[in-house]
Amino acid sequence: MSLGPEASISDEITTPTDDAAVERNAGETAIAGRSLKQIAWRRLKKDRVAVGGGIVIIVLIVMAILAPLLIKLLGHPYDEYHNDAIDPTLGLPKGSLGGISKEFILGVEPVNGRDIFSRIVYGAQTTLTVAFLSAFLSTILGVLFGMTAGFVGGWVDSIISRIMDFLLAFPQLLFSIALVSVLPPTSFGLGPRWSRVVVLVIVIGFFGWPYIGRIVRGQTLSLREREFVEASRSLGARSPRILFREMLPNLAAPILVYTTLIIPTNILTEAALSFLGVGIPPPYPSWGGMLSDAVATYRYDAMFMIIPGAMIFITVLAFNLFGDGLRDALDPKAH
Amino acid sequence: MSISSASIGASIQRPFFEVKDLNVRFETDDGIVQAVTGSTFSLEKGKTLGIVGESGSGKSVTSLAVLGLHRTRSNAKVTGEIWLDDQELVTATDEQVRKLRGGKMAMIFQDPLSAMHPYFTVGSQIVEAYSVHHPGVSKKVARERAIDMLARVGIPQPERRFNDYAHQFSGGMRQRAMIAMALVNDPALLIADEPTTALDVTVQAQILDLIRDLQEEFGSAVIMITHDLGVVAELADDVLVMYGGKVIEKGSALDVFRTPQHPYTWGLLGSMPRLDRDVRDRLTPVKGTPPSLINLPDGCAFNPRCPYAGRNGRRSFTEVPVLRDGGPGTGAGHLVACHLPAEDRTKIFQQEVLPNL
Amino acid sequence: MLAYIIRRLINAVVTLIVVTFVTFCVFFLVPKLTGSDPALLYVGKQADPVALAGIREKFGFNDPLIVQYGKFLKGIVAGRDYVTGADVTHCSAPCLGYSFKNSQEVWPLLIHALPVTFSLALGAAVLWVLMGVFFGVVSALRRGSIWDRSAMTVALAGVSLPIYFTGLLSLSIFVYWLGFANPGYTPFFDNPWQWFTGLLLPWITLAFLFAATYARLTRANMLETLGEDYIRTARAKGLRERTVIGKHGLRSGLTPLVTVFGLDLGALLGGAILTEAVYNLRGLGYFALNSIRSSDLPIILGVTLFAAGFIVIMNLIVDLLYGVIDPRVRLG
Amino acid sequence: MAGKTKVMVAGAAALTLGLTAACGGGSDKNSSTTTNGGSTSTFNASTTQIVNPSDKTGGTLNLWSPQAPDSLDPAIAYYAWTINFSRLYSRTLMTYAPKPGKDGLTLVPDLAQAAPTISADGKTYTYKLKSGVKFDDGSVITSKDIKYGIERTFAQDVLPNGPLYAIQDLDQGQHYPGPYKDKDPNKMGLKTVETPDDSTIIFHLAKPNANFPYEITMPIGAPVPQKRDTGEKYALAPASSGPYKFESINPDTGATLVKNPNWDPSTDSVRKQLPDKIVLTVTTNADDMDARLIAGTADLDASQSGVSTQARTQILTNDKLKANAANPNNGFIRYAALAQTVAPLDNVDCRKAIIYASDPTTLQTARGGPIAGGDIATNMLPPNILGSDVKYDPYNRAQGKPQLDLAKQELQKCGHPNGFSTTIAVRNNKPAEIATATALQAALKPAGINASIFQYDGKLIGSIAGSPATVKAKNLGIIIAGWGADFATGYGYLAPIAMGSFIAQSGNFNFPEINDPAINAAFTKGLSEQDPAAAAQDYANANHLVMEGAYYLPFVFDKALNYYNPRLTNVYFNQALAMVDFSQLGVSDGK
Asked: Does this complex have an ipTM over 0.90?
């Protein structure tokens, strides 16, 4: 699970290299092809909890995309100070519940009076971008290396497997913090916000690939011995063709599941890095960064801690629910 | 004929083992699985019943129902009657059934590698089976008994093999150990669920011989579940053919093999390799796939695969055939569930099926 | 068996060497690439040229990377002397470097931080294994029941909660609202009761997160195990349900947990960075974070090596243990 | 070369020479009082009087700090609070009088029998030592121990980061490498310091320097016995000449001091030896420390850096607690330097636009608000410095609002009517500085000035913000910083950050690179004045020129809200140390 911040290294999703469920799953896919997709879709639709998760995810994505519009309608620019909303002596928001009012629907930040609602909305942008892109990167790397290792075998397999073992033995969170903290604040010709997003995507994505890689390797190994692969090989198909035309479609289901399940971990990691002060730089908002700021005031302004914390929780939960549902739907053995 | 089905001869004395109108269904998220419907049969001590069918035909579910192994599944529903030596098992308490399991009735499972616990030695698993039904027996006695059983099923150096794990045994040895475990309490009813499927042919023969020898020695009633008619032909006194959760043909082994009545049985016979057949002849497997137990075809469950389904107009597609006497030309107690008229069946079998067998 | 262990140990050492080398490269190269000078980190703001030259000489910053790395490795094995003129600073083996920020050898510094992280990790581990296994097993046995559903809902919430959030919440509730003492570390031998009470909140918070994962994992494993043929066999033998679950089920349902537990514990022993940060516990993770913030390279390297070491060692232990608990696994 | 001043990491070391009574917290009138042992404390009482005067001995003084000492080695100790702390175990030739108010700024003899004899040319300082003063091991303190202590500061390769005053004043081209590389067998090779006998020490300066006595009143002037010197490890076991000696030291977690039996009160008119034990606990948990202070299980925040946000709220909303708190001015100004080497800030009007566009109130709030942050700064001389005038407000900042129209006018004048882009450089380890940077960024936006924030490792300030080449290359137009003088003269405070001769290629603190002949002349004139009042006029003049040049945007005259345990006795704010004087403290309950 990537550098899952102080979470168990192996949730259910990391064990299944030798998990019969996945093997059978892949087998089913191989046989049933399209029909499994339909079955899975039907099952997913019936799984109310997963659908709920999916809806929350869609709402969050829409929220992130429409951020500028939402802010215009319901908030204030995310970096605009509102000194009048702050008690100057204590630096705390005026009014109860962290200054929640018609004007500021989620209240204001202590000290500077910035609109929490707009910071949450813009925070969703960074959080989701980092989570999706890093999951995507992990998947690409994981599939590429995992399939190569499983398909080619031999010394290529041993080297890739060794690298994966090595990366899994690496103190990743520690290393990421250290690495991100020494990197220059702007790079890739982007502003401070998006260049840090790119850095986070690379770091989180890079440390996440061995988890997908191991699964894909295991799947590829077992698929390689299957008849249809043997068949196309005997028909003279070349390796790349076998890999991408024959095997990849059969790996699609597990890859989809694990990519979905790696996203919540990435969200937690991004938030953890921001919490530890190496995430998105101010004044750009991030949920972890807001939580980190809240450390200074949470006894007297609990809302400033609860709102970003709850957002992280809800988002991660939604992805977990959806991911679990997806796995159950694609895994006939679960029933 | 040893068939003493309850439908014939209303004897007051129950057969040693009897199943009446057994229904097993499972509720799953995808729908209700009607695994066994109205299954009825009986068996006497010392006799062997073969249950034949493809996977998913309900034969294994039936045997598990006998052992009460569906009880732990909250989504399983078992109705009907199961009588073992004048004790009814469906309504019996969990504890009553548990005491019978492994004792009076025992089971040999299909794949001994997965059916034996990987983390315990083979010996300890046999000891466990013995001790649970012989409380108060010392470990030493239990161990001797286990080693004795291992020896009797033909495992060389049983003392040493006692401490081995299942994965350290060869396939045949493992199945022997499995049999030793099933027989350790001298069961009166032994259910063997595809005991030879996972084994190669020579070992298959050895295992079957072993079961036959042991049956003679212990005088047990044996239910032999298999999809392999050859095994049945070799061992069984009576045969039960199941399809889609229902018994579709039932009779003495001799009758069923000589004058099979159901098109499905014909198919099974056709797919059976025979030594006396010319190797150049092609086997004719039953076309199509077994039906979904969630969504059985209307009418005769076999109709999608039955080449003769159209001969009765729409009847095969609308009406479920009942199990009844096979009609003229069949032995007593030879029952079949088929809409084809008896004469047609005889004719088709004689003219179309037999020559190809 | 012995050959296996030796081979694994060699492997472990190789892994650790690679870990240090990568870390070493990154932290020596990145400052070069970004145009700053590691020596500056030691002399601080004054940037006195004499001091800079002295520091460079002392640390060997003028040497090529590979020479510097060689000296570092040698220091671990044989100790190391930092020399400027007549002034010699000896750093005895195993020398992980010398933190000039507070004039201390890194190794004893880390060893000093170990009990905190150990107390935190082991205490939490006991809790989370007990809780996770209990809830997981019960949920598996009562699959679909209210109990199962609520336990799994809580567990899913648990894995979705960031620890720095639960940590702050627990502090505001228990410390500031209910008035319990602020968590902190007291050495066990100084005062066992204070040790216990001071770590209770961090334990619970950390354990909650892991227990959630373990409950899910245990439940999944148990469900898979209970569906296995050999469980059916056990029942068919007439074993009591208690024996079936308690002996046959748990034995194979919990065995895979050993791997996960080993890895989790290994990772945690290298520093529970977030938990230590939230509760201000001065363990390895806190140390790491602090040294990263003050760019104290010898300590960063040291902690990375320690952390990797724990993961590698726990991996080895898990594999050896597997050879004992799973008869199918043959070491060699 | 003149005294090098520092940007403090933790607090201020504002050593005030002047006569101004810097009386903090004047704006906070309140009547909250608390009673303890018959005496009463009110908010800020400790800044003007000694609270709970008592000679009661015994008990343990529990000092806590959220930050480890930079070093307990007198050659290195440079944090304001470690300098204060070092007075517990290190004596110097002279030291500050233990008195509240301006009296605390005067130097009184400590190891010396009397004030030094100064030669007519002002270049030679001769001190006579008291006799019979001993180290904790019973050996007598001689003038050679003091010379050795000063020599140690020359060994920058072994003992970096300490004050460099001794090198600047006494090296005089000798390139003395420090005692560790000293060829002299007695390690007494520094030529400019003479020790003709064990009780006499003579310093020869190259030019007159009225600051010199203050410089060696920092711990660099403390005696170090050569036989106990262990180089950089000396910090782990420094010798004691004061009333307390170390029982144990862990640089990261704290230290325990016990009474030094070889300290003779008859030789020390400054310090007290009231508690039996002094425990310094370094915590990582500032919240916990504040909770302990309020609960009374900790006595004082030794770092005196101010309570955390949460405790501030708790104290300010509770009159009882507030009575045991104080927020005196600590001699710091927090500001943004506007680098005139970075276009378009080379144009004075563009710099003025930034000053006008900034929002004094958000900057003040970012620093912590009026009580814990400080008063809105109006110019670049802090109130405790002679020549300062808080009323001098050329940019009308005290009213607290941004002046966008004026900013727009200035932009027009500088040829960027629609604004421009620049970069704000800020240290990444200073949350309050980051907060001010974002506040400034937000305030500049409406004027069309787009500032991006560049965070850098605070430890590298000398090579980033302090390197004119880097400033130019990275376009660091606005540099957030804070400044507190080691000596609170106008020269000591302002010259290092506004005089041309202070511009250095690295470690520069004259961030705007001000090299204005008029300003330089004002400083030179001030340094030569014998009359402090006349000098003050020169510095006021320099201040005016600096402000007119719009090189600095001052944020606040810094304050820190600190709390002390009511059981403490003899609590007072020493203006020279810029914090509560630890050497006088006792505990009233004897625990």
From this structure: no
